[in-house]
Amino acid sequence: xxxxxxxxxxxxxxxxxxxxxxxxxxxxxxxxxxxxxxxxxxxxxxxxxxxxxxxxxxxxxxxxxxxxxxxxxxxxxxxxxxxxxxxxxxxxxxxxxxxxxxxxxxxxxxxxxxxxxxxxxxxxxxxxxxxxxxxxxxxxxxxxxxxxxxxxxxxxxxxxxxxxxxxxxxxxxxxxxxxxxxxxxxxxxxxxxxxxxxxxxxxxxxxxxxxxxxxxxxxxxxxxxxxxxxxxxxxxxxxxxxxxxxxxxxxxxxxxxxxxxxxxxxxxxxxxxxxxxxxxxxxxxxxxxxxxxxxxxxxxxxxxxxxxxxxxxxxxxxxxxxxxxxxxxxxxxxxxxxxxxxxxxxxxxxxxxxxxxxxxxxxxxxxxxxxxxxxxxxxxxxxxxxxxxxxxxxxxxxxx
Length: 400
Ligand code: FAD
Description:
GO molecular function: FAD binding; protein-disulfide reductase activity; thiol oxidase activity
Strand order of the largest sheet: 2-3-4
Keywords: Disulfide bond, Electron transport, Endoplasmic reticulum, FAD, Flavoprotein, Glycoprotein, Membrane, Oxidoreductase, Redox-active center, Signal, Transmembrane, Transmembrane helix, Transport
Subcellular location: Endoplasmic reticulum membrane
Strand content: 5-15%
Order of helices and strands: HHEHEEEEHHHEEHHHHHHH
Number of helices: 13
Subunit structure: May function both as a monomer and a homodimer.
Bound molecules: flavin-adenine dinucleotide
Structural class: mainly alpha
Helix content: 40-55%
Number of strands: 7
Family: Belongs to the EROs family.
């Protein structure tokens, strides 16, 4: 835990740890309110699509893995799938599989909202579920294996799921190949690794912050869990900051688009006004701390090929989520990979003209906007949890 107070510039961003620290309290309290608003709390997703990579995805029988759905009638009419499908005019460059699709600019597979249930995300905290062991490790290993950039290794225009990969014997091999010597790797590959490792670290932080003591049945922070999974690997914590800056940069760039978005779900406009008020605070924090120079990536020779490869890999990560054998983990895995993919699209695919809300009102699906802000919430919440662990480590009670 002595290592958990990084200082100075955050690598490959234009921001420093101190700036993120200085805004996170404010960011968290606002984004925490935002995700409770009707627009942001209802999410429709098909959690039961077939795993495209292997047959035996296993299942978590632990009660902590279970989630309950919300009846469609509880979801404001305006945000129900049938109504939404009438306004989605972006069908031109769709590549489809049953139940899902992606467009050329997307970094993820998106649900086409023909199947799937509704979930109230405020009722499903990301925390310890008991999902672990070889099945969970296989998912992480497969995700890290996507960090293999070969430029000509496969047909990058073919969006179909790749054949099952042959896995190396140990996770360490994969991780070593991912972590590598920084200087040996191209910037894009390092960014890819940071994004994944930062997501993994954030999920671990949530698990340790709300851990179930299986002997006493009590929930609470587990310092040893945090030390083992995060604090003894300082770079993992650094990548949570990195992901936070990346998400903030996307929110800052999307500021005008998000401000012009129609959040009204009740017909009274009250939610719309309240949602926009909170959102404008989040956007102004994002403008301050979201300092990331996306133009430094994907430039020079082979830039477009590299970007297409990056997209194919990240789309695969979003499909690997269908193989997660724990409903609750799969839900948050899908939301967060969609949220990150949305941020990547905003940073690396969309120019100012495309981001113009008047010219391009249907730029993002509702699920992308919801996932983006909920993912930012998760990272910001992780940084809050890290602060609490720092206090516990120093012998103070974080609730005082
Ligand atoms: P794991 O976290 O499974 O990690 C496996 C190996 O990866 C480690 O041994 C280490 O070598 C390496 N590693 C760990 N962290 C990092 C990192 N940040 N960067 C690089 N390498 C790393 N469990 C829950 O209880 N609740 C959840 O909500 C939940 N959501 C999940 C969502 C997804 C998408 C997945 C794949 C799993 C989820 N799990 C969840 C399971 C959880 O992530 C762990 O797999 C599980 O707790 C077992 O942890 P572990 O200590 O064995 O190591």
